Amino acid sequence: MDFQKKLPISNISTNDVYYKRQLSFYSFNTHVISKLDSYFYCYSENVVAKGSEEVVSMLHHFIFTQLDKTPLREIQIESIHPRYLSYRSNYNGATETSLIRTASINQTKMPGPNEFFLPDKKYIEPIPISLEKWDNLQQLKTFCENDGVSEFYGNLPHKLTRKVKKKRKCVA
């Protein structure tokens, strides 16, 4: 990914930046999937104004301080994460993905566009869920094309709870 030419920053109108004195704050997040670690670098508008080499220095710092302890076979730099169910970005341009390879290895199978891997169950006991949310889940289940997804939500252990509206006391 060439940060020197294309720095992914948000498109903000001139009115918001200059007249409302809005200061932009950007984040640069890196994940080490093998260790389940995440490193979060932040930079404000005044750092970005100096140039995109500051963002490259964050990536350089991450590679040479966190990744030099383990032997690397491959570094994959992406704009998205394959396990995120919903991904939101404030970058309006085209998303770019690049791959840096130092040696040939067997690649792991990532989920395809129509594939869904069920997450591990975190709860052993039934999940307390309101009746309205349970009805919404059952309606959402009808739109799922994959059979595994509807089975997962249909067999989800739950115990229904009802919301009790509390009356507010008027203080005069």
SSE diagram, text form:
Elements: H1 14-19, E1 25-32, E2 37-44, H2 45-50, H3 53-66, E3 74-77, E4 98-101, E5 127-130, H4 131-141, H5 147-154, E6 158-161
Parallel strand pairs: 5-6
Antiparallel strand pairs: 1-2, 3-4
Task: Count the E strands.
Answer: 6
Overall, the morphology is extended
Placed side by side, the strands forming the largest sheet appear as 1-2
The end-to-end span amounts to 62 Å
Structural write-up:
Strands 1-2 form a two-stranded antiparallel ribbon. Strands 3-4 form a two-stranded antiparallel sheet. A two-stranded parallel ribbon has the order 5-6. The chain has two domains: 14-101, no CATH class; 112-172, no CATH class. The protein is α+β, with helices and mostly antiparallel strands. It is extended and about 50 Å long. The protein is built from five helices and six strands. Mean pLDDT is 63; it is low at 1-6 and 81-101. A hairpin with a 4-residue loop joins strand 1 and strand 2. The protein has helices at residues 14-19, 45-50, 53-66, 131-141, 147-154, and strands at residues 25-32, 37-44, 74-77, 98-101, 127-130, 158-161. The protein starts with 13 loop residues before the first helix and ends in an 11-residue tail after the last strand.
